[in-house]
């Protein structure tokens, strides 16, 4: 039986999930592929540290190049995360003629084009199913079964950590920090959780999806991105009262030759299927011009679900090695579309302000909105929070407008002292 040898860079949550998935299903994998897959070497910079997994010590190496330059290794599995040195390691492995599997959305969103070109030049595979939505095989679906479709709409919950935090905050009185800690302990959160809670992880994933689906190379830094750090219990309770759930959404739309996209928390109507995607679950909505609406749902984070996606890529490559078949069959990031990037587009928004509770305040605020043609759909005033006798929270839902225009109106409201602060602006998904 053909033996395929893996060198794994990293021994974090996803790496352990990958190792465990192979151990769990080794016989099944061998029987269905006819290949024996061995994780032969693992990069572990601190061998003395207890990793909470039983792995023979002789597999560990402390220098990545002991793996990358080993002629016996067929596939490098990069699971250290972050842009560097991950990109350097992947590029070196591809140049050495090794296949690469990665879960690294940050490195792919920025350096995917260069890495893919290297892979093509060397006729090896670069596969990255685990980089978007963890265990959901969304990249496989887009690049195989859905190839006959023109897809114009992407809407997704693609970060498990933030979905977990928002779910727990809406279900209980748990505060933000304790829920974040819980998510870290469960292995969902990135090493630096600011990437999750500030929305950058979602922007990386959206950038990859837009390249696969629309054929555009939009860097994550150019995607308007807002995280969940400004969401508090007041927003969650008002949203519930108004019939919405708050979810961190990745949105991209192709309208003719224009493309708009953004990452931000959104008020999603309770009747919308995305509103019932809870905890670390992810969901991606797509609309194809032949297949119509599709929703992919599953665990988007966590060691075993993500390990399952990594193993899927390893198996695809192992089968190709065994059959000596062409290595050009791989998901392709595309950069060929001639589309104009138009930012966030027009949306409805929820706005929470703090203002003095005196006659004339509401009139001033609404005439400033009027001056910028921002129409008000709903308005509510909440009682002053305990310990604050001077200001009250005011909440508005406004009709579709451009974010830039709304921001100008809000800046003028503050400048003219009609309100004390703008505490939150959240997009409303219709
Ligand atoms: N930190 C990510 C998440 C892991 O919470 O979804 C998967 O990319």
Please identify the top-level CATH class of the largest domain. Answer: Alpha Beta
Query: Oligomeric form of this entry?
Result: single chain
Number of helices: 13
> Fraction of residues in helices?
25-40%
pLDDT < 50 stretches: none
Task: Report the CATH superfamily of the largest domain.
Answer: Dihydrodipicolinate Reductase, domain 2
Number of domains: 3
Q: How far do the termini sit from each other? A: 55 Å
**Average predicted confidence as pLDDT:** 94
Instruction: Give the CATH topology of the largest domain.
Output: Dihydrodipicolinate Reductase, domain 2
Bound molecule kinds, no repeats = L-homoserine
Beta-strand percentage range: 25-35%
The largest sheet, given as strand count, sense and whether it forms a barrel, is:
10 strands, mixed
Detailed description of the structure:
The protein is an alpha/beta fold and 430 residues long. The protein has 3 domains: 2-135 and 303-322, NAD(P)-binding Rossmann-like Domain (Rossmann fold, 3-Layer(aba) Sandwich), CATH 3.40.50; 141-299, Dihydrodipicolinate Reductase, domain 2 (2-Layer Sandwich), CATH 3.30.360.10; 346-428, Alpha-Beta Plaits (2-Layer Sandwich), CATH 3.30.70.260. It is 36% helix and 27% strand. It has helices at residues 13-33, 64-68, 86-95, 105-122, 138-143, 160-171, 176-185, 194-197, 200-214, 233-241, 303-323, 361-371, 403-415, and strands at 2-9, 35-43, 60-61, 75-78, 99-102, 126-127, 151-157, 244-255, 258-269, 281-288, 292-299, 340-341, 346-356, 376-381, 391-402, 421-428. The strands form 2 sheets. Strands 7, 8, 9, 10, 11, 12, 13, 14, 15 and 16 form a 10-stranded mixed sheet that branches. A 6-stranded parallel sheet has the order 3-2-1-4-5-6, sandwiched between helices. Helix 1 (13-33) links the parallel strand 1 and strand 2. Helix 12 runs antiparallel to helix 13. It is elongated. Bound molecules: L-homoserine. The site of L-homoserine has 11 residues, from helix 6.
């Amino acid at each position: 039986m053909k033996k395929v040898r893996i060198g794994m860079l990293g021994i974090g949550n996803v790496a352990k999930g990958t190792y465990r998935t192979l151990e769990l299903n080794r016989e099944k994998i061998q029987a269905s592929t006819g290949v024996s897959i061995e994780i032969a070497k693992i990069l572990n910079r601190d061998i003395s540290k207890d990793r909470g997994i039983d792995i023979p010590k002789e597999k560990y190496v402390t220098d990545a190049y002991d793996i990358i330059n080993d002629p016996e290794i067929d596939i490098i599995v990069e699971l250290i995360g972050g842009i560097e040195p991950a990109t350097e390691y992947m590029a070196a492995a591809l140049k050495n003629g090794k296949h690469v599997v990665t879960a690294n959305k940050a490195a792919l969103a920025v350096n995917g084009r260069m890495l893919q070109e290297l892979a093509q030049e060397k006729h090896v595979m670069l596969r990255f199913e685990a980089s978007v939505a963890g265990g959901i095989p969304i990249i496989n679906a887009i690049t195989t079964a859905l190839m006959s479709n023109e897809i114009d709409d992407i809407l997704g919950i693609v970060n498990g950590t933030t979905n977990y935090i928002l779910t727990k905050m809406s279900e209980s009185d748990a505060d933000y920090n304790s829920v974040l800690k819980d998510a870290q302990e469960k292995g969902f959160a990135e090493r630096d959780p600011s990437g999750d809670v500030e929305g950058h992880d979602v922007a990386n994933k959206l950038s990859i999806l837009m390249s696969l689906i629309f054929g555009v190379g939009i860097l994550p830094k150019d995607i308007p991105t807002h995280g969940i750090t400004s969401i508090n219990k007041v927003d969650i309770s008002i949203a519930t009262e108004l019939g919405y759930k708050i979810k961190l959404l990745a949105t991209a739309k192709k309208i003719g030759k224009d493309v708009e996209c953004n990452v931000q928390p959104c008020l999603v109507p309770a009747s919308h299927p995305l509103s019932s995607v809870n905890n670390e679950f992810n969901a991606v909505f797509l609309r194809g011009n032949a297949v119509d609406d599709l929703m992919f749902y599953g665990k988007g984070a966590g060691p075993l679900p993500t390990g399952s996606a990594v193993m899927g890529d390893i198996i695809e490559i192992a089968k190709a090695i065994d059959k000596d078949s062409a290595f050009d069959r791989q998901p392709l990031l595309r950069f060929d579309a001639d589309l104009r990037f138009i930012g966030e587009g027009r949306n409805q928004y929820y706005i929470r302000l703090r203002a003095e509770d005196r006659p004339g305040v509401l009139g001033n605020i609404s005439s400033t909105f009027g001056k910028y043609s921002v129409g008000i759909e709903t308005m509510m005033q909440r009682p002053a929070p305990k310990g604050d006798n001077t200001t009250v929270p005011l909440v508005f839902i406004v009709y579709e407008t451009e974010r830039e225009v709304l921001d100008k109106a809000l800046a003028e409201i503050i400048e003219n002292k009609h309100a004390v602060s703008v505490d939150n602006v959240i997009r409303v998904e219709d």
